[in-house]
């Protein structure tokens, strides 16, 4: 893709976010709604390898189960599905198979199905990075079939329903984890009360876009919420856990009924975590912080629910495009340097592992097709992105969206690695260091956001 094309994409995004006046969506096409929700267990056996670490580790205990949660909505002959997995991520091929399984199980076009992950780091390896190896048998025999099962059950439970949408707000949990330092460098998580910290190098997004769903007679059925915060990881490193996403789902079920299904999708949070480096935290019990954050978000859902105006008719629509993501690779003398570094046992293990990652990317294609998808339910919209996307991109999309409520769902319909802003490549840091988990070229995020913004414009006018 040429530089002129990149500028055109970014220009389109700026145009959408700026002074272009879009016509207000009319309700004439709104049709009566049906909705259904279901859950399928995807908990693995003890002993399985765990994701989320540069070095190998395995599960010794199951603290709480992992699930595939599904919500299906239908109106005017159009059916869509949101599926959320308690996994760190799922690669493009595996996600494609999961979407096909859901499509076959419920007669929903693949393009109308969003399969995303919570990004818990206490779940099986689903990607091959560093010393982690993809658990192929678990994915093939458990994850993919149960995605189909969850969507099938949700479809069987379709019933007359009504929906509402709102934006909650929770600023206490998220912190940008990248910091400008006094020596001019940039560091991720520089340590508590570090006197050399100047300021955060990026924003946070406290907004909680949500789609609330209840039966025609007012019984709560499901919520599809979205929050820009990485996993919390306040459990031991050798356990299976759904992190705060699972706590949120359990808490909402306690409040709304045991059949209630709560999806807390992952917002743009490639550079946002739960670590406040300005002060040393007070001692906490394992899992305490996850429960606290889950409670804050659940409180926001309850507050929005109490004030919501539910609609029995709404436009449902979806659209999908393929974005060719360019792969960043070593060149020239860098290749031999990485080979030498990968074999130098005097170097720290981390440096050797990164060198091996960079060499592995040389075997990858120069471009990889990525799904960018947008879905609409009335005044609620969700755009999907396959990577761990920097928060600024999420804010840009929300500003560009004509919808009153817009969710930015990352780790969806594939995996494309960290997606920084163009400026952040120059600043450097962990998220930009070349690896199979961080291979996007500069401008990737801006182009993806521009494409999604155009999709949202199309859906608004549908």
Structure commentary:
The chain is an alpha+beta fold. The protein folds into two domains: 34-325 and 365-460, no CATH class; 330-361, no CATH class. It is 31% helix and 27% strand. It has ten helices and 22 strands. The strands form six sheets. Strands 1, 3, 4, 5, 6, 11, 12, 14 and 16 form a nine-stranded mixed β-sheet that branches. Strands 17-18-19-21 form a four-stranded mixed β-sheet, with helices on one face. Helix 1 crosses helix 10 (444-460). The longest helix has 21 residues, at 136-156. Residues 1-28 have low confidence and may be disordered.
Topology:
Layout: H1 3-17, E1 31-41, E2 61-62, E3 67-75, E4 78-85, H2 92-106, E5 113-117, H3 136-156, E6 159-169, E7 175-176, E8 178-181, E9 186-188, E10 197-200, E11 207-215, E12 220-227, E13 239-240, H4 243-256, E14 261-266, E15 272-273, H5 288-307, E16 313-314, E17 316-326, H6 333-343, H7 349-361, E18 367-377, E19 380-384, E20 388-389, H8 391-400, E21 405-409, E22 418-419, H9 422-427, H10 444-460
Parallel strand pairs: 2-13, 4-5, 12-14, 19-21, 20-22
Antiparallel strand pairs: 1-3, 1-6, 1-16, 3-4, 6-11, 7-15, 8-9, 8-10, 11-12, 17-18, 18-19
Work out the oligomeric state of the chains in this entry.
single chain
Number of helical elements: 10
Return residue spans where pLDDT drops below 50 for at least 5 consecutive residues: 1-28
Number of domain units = 2
The counted number of beta strands is 22
In short:
The protein has 462 residues and is an alpha+beta fold.
